[in-house]
Amino acid sequence: KAEDAGMGKRRFLVLAAAHIFGSEELSALAPAVAELSPRPYLALGPADAEAAGVKSGDMVDLAVPGALVPLAARIVPGLAPGVAIVPAGLGGVPWQGLPARGRITRRPSA
Asked: What is the reported pTM?
């Protein structure tokens, strides 16, 4: 379990990252741009993912002040330990209040 690995107890610095397609709030409403926009995700560095037993595509819950959001994990080489990234501007991702400290919990497998 993630809690056993300390992931759910540890606080991450959650940052927002812009993407070429979909980061501007109105651009994602255009069908052609929406097709090119990434799906919502939470990026973790390899060390944090390994410590928590999280693989790319696993579902995790991101808890930041005012929001609890389920997101697919994405492993990003070179991302510093203790840092998590979500895409800016995508619907359902709480990027407006970032940077913020948050907790990440691995969701149980179905």
From this structure: 0.81
